[in-house]
Amino acid sequence: MTTQADPKQAPSTMAPLRDPVFRMLWMAWLAANVTMWMNDVASAWVMTTLTDSVLMVAMVQAASTLPVFVLGLPSGALADIVDRRRYFAVTQLWVAATALVLSALAFADGLSAPLLLALTFANGIGMAMRWPVFAAIVPEVVPRHDLSAALALNGIAMNMSRIVGPVVAGMLLASVGSQYVFLLNALLSIIAFVIILRWRSQPKVSALPGERFFGAMRVGLQHVVQSPRMRVVLLRIFGFFLQSSALLALLPLIARKLEGGATTFTALLAAMGAGAILTALFLPRLRRGISRDEFVAWGTGVHAVAALLVVLAPNIWLAMPASALAGMAWIATANSLTLAAQLALPNWVRARGMSIYQMALMGGSAVGAALWGYVASLTTVSLSIAIAAVLGPLLLVLTRHLSVGGGPDADHTPVSPAGRAPEPIIEIAPNEGPVMVTIEYLIDPSTAAGFNAVMQKTRRARLRQGALSWGLFRDTTLPGRYIEYFLDENWIEHQRRLERFTAADAGLREQRLSFHMGPDEPRVQRYVGEPMATQHVEPSVGPAPI
């Protein structure tokens, strides 16, 4: 990935579209999102014709987003260990098949409220599968300095679809019926499938076998848990979507309160999307001099005010500008947090990391939709949205000491380690293990506090790379002598660590070595676990990367 561009010269939002690969994938993403919004709008409106339950109407959004929360990590693991191009294409076939079933049932007048929720959940599975893989693909084809613009374009695609999808769905709902909305969804999904197949991705080059599915999920989850930046991003995105989901989930009921039909509902969604697109076009320029934390704070506050204005508006002409303002705040906040997540993740675990990010996002949305729908059923729609509008900024104030943009972003460019592990003199099977690595440091005892601080960073780095456990011990007989150890699951996972070595890891290694005294580098030993109760281990000693 290329180096960071001069921050004084913000890239144009349209710059990534000059690349034919990104342009092709962006078109597929646009088509995929149009189908998503068409399905959500049609399902939400059809539900209002099948039942009078406020909770069931709100549950349409919950059913659409819950699969992302449930299946996010497995789909991210698959996207990291299989061919991303084929996987992305398969997701579109899944969505097409679901849309065809919905269309057939609508033509036969066979839809009921529970069945519609079940099929909405099935359509959400397709979204759960495709989002992590697309999120992982974008940084592969876009230079680092264009990443913010590319993410803004993805936001534009999402919000163009928020306009195009509802408008087309609303026209079809008003003229020929929901069955044709679902049929068009199937057609667009097949078109996206064909576009994706035209992309020729670069295959991963590795002498090691692919990661195992459950092991890949463990490593992905562990990486995110041990990343301070990602933990804050997950908290922020969950809180924001918990707040913002109230407006979207209850929007069909707001449209009915304004004495409007599908056209009013569509107009409010279109206004929200238009506001988001307008803001996304200027995001790279707006970012100059404004931190990601400030974007999140302002976006959260403005969205809360906009949601209140929408629900209190006496007519659609006042509700639409407020809805556009909500869209502006939404894209500014979501883009800032997505960028923070992308820059916090190395490529080898990006799909898994972004799938967990997506789980937090959609989890907040699903929980919020169900929660605010329930609150509205007990009170009123206006009071439910007012409570959500207060809760979002309150959570932000209570966690104001946490930052998604504090300090420089880590450089995850892959680099070659300083040394290579020596070939073992004993025969070791690929899945044999666990493998224990010990590293001996000799430091000046007066620098112990600084050394320990660096080793705590080392602990998080080892665990992010997949280590099962880590520890640091000091010698009781020789002041300044420390032993670091960590365990890898097996010999293959131990070798895989070399492929995950980045510029950030190299910088941390230099920090550790700056404390070490002596003419030689710290002594490294490797031990492979024996299957017997009484174990005998053979060390492999050498100047390997530490």
How are the strands of the biggest sheet laid out side by side? 2-3-1-4-5
Terminal CA distance: 24 Å
For the biggest sheet, the summary is: 5 strands, antiparallel
Mean pLDDT: 82
Number of helices: 18
Question: What secondary-structure arrangement, pairings included, does this model have?
Answer:
Layout: H1 20-50, H2 54-81, H3 84-107, H4 113-141, H5 147-175, H6 178-198, H7 213-225, H8 228-249, H9 251-257, H10 262-281, H11 283-286, H12 292-312, H13 316-344, H14 350-378, H15 381-398, E1 435-442, H16 448-464, E2 469-474, E3 481-488, H17 491-499, H18 503-513, E4 523-528, E5 540-541
Antiparallel strand pairs: 1-3, 1-4, 2-3, 4-5
Helix pairs in contact: 1-2, 1-4, 1-5, 1-6, 2-4, 2-7, 2-14, 3-4, 3-6, 4-14, 5-6, 5-10, 5-13, 7-16, 8-12, 8-13, 8-14, 8-15, 9-10, 10-13, 12-13, 12-15, 14-15, 16-18
Descriptive overview:
The protein has 546 residues and is mostly helical. 66% of the residues lie in helices and 5% in strands. The protein is built from 18 helices and five strands. A hairpin with a 6-residue loop joins strand 2 and strand 3 (481-488). Helix 5 (147-175) runs antiparallel to helix 6 (178-198), helix 7 (213-225) packs antiparallel against helix 16 and helix 8 packs parallel to helix 14 (350-378). The chain is elongated, with a radius of gyration of 26 Å.
